[in-house]
Design brief:
This protein is α/β, with parallel strands linked by helices and 367 residues long. The protein is built from 6 helices and 14 strands. Helix content is 32%, strand content 26%.
Length: 367
Amino acid sequence: METRAPFVIVGGFVLAAIVAVFGFVFWLHNSGGLGPRVSYEVRFEGPVPGLLVGAAVLFNGIRVGEVTDLALAPRDPRRVNVKIAVSSDTPVRADTRVGLEFQGLTGVPVVALEGGTRLDGGPVTTLTAEAGAGQSMTQAARDALRKVDAVLTDNADPLKATIANFQTFSETLAKNSGKLDDIVAGLGRMMGGGQPVRKVTYDIPAAKGFPSVPAKALTGSLAIPEPTVIAMLDTQRLLISPPGDHPEFAEAMWADSIPKLLQARLIESFENYDIDHAPLRPMDGVQPDTQLALDIRRFQINADDKPVADIELSARIIDKDGKVVAARLFHEIQAFDHLDPKSAAAAFGAAFERLAQAMVKWVVQAP
């Protein structure tokens, strides 16, 4: 019995396959979507290495279409005309920037669109890429090296002369190295850098000798900010008035700048009086009940006749509302026999100890 082929079924299957193929091609052409597309012509003023039909088109990094055609400009062989098809809702403007990006390790090129705000001039059909937009990093590096090579070639003779002058200069330095060493050593001695200067530091003691149990304890929280001072007194040097030539004081200095040193020793003096209620330095976020504001008026050696250590401080007690509760001047002097740093430091220590004792008692008795 002869089997008859179902020609109608076979023909229908072939027709369906053809339709499926055409549908797949249409889907691929539209990047998997069936939405409307708009075509643009992009003009590159230079090569577009590696760009192929079907390459992606990105707008601000998002894929919006693909390249549909590549061709050389018939009247200008340096130019490349690229046709792209993108989604109709892509905001392409007349000033949209165009370039090539190279993605991945293999550097696959894609057309990159970016920005644009102009809406004048009607619908946009043609975009022009910026000069050099198709250059890869490798090509840009080659061009830069060619320019450097051209500069070196054009200036070969001046460069040779400059190198020769450097060689002559270095040979001259080598021949006169001994003289140069003498010159540098002389400059070092002239500037005081021949030998390292050995500084000798001095300190002043805090007030002591208070009763072990204070007669009246400090009430509330007290802070002692760093004293204010004029620029001349903001130093570690031992100051002498009137100024003169005193080489024995050149290497003498206080252990810290005068304002910081007095602040530290006054806090220590209050600690020696009443350690349980001793004042502190001002801290961020902490509002003390009162502050002891100090201004340094004098902290110097008067060397007119017999040398004298002269200390004068202006003190004010200020409450938390900024009101001055009490104010007083403290002034102490101490004479000494020989105008030398050690004797001067001892005199300052004696004068400051008396001044600090008087200040502690005044603060304790203040209202």
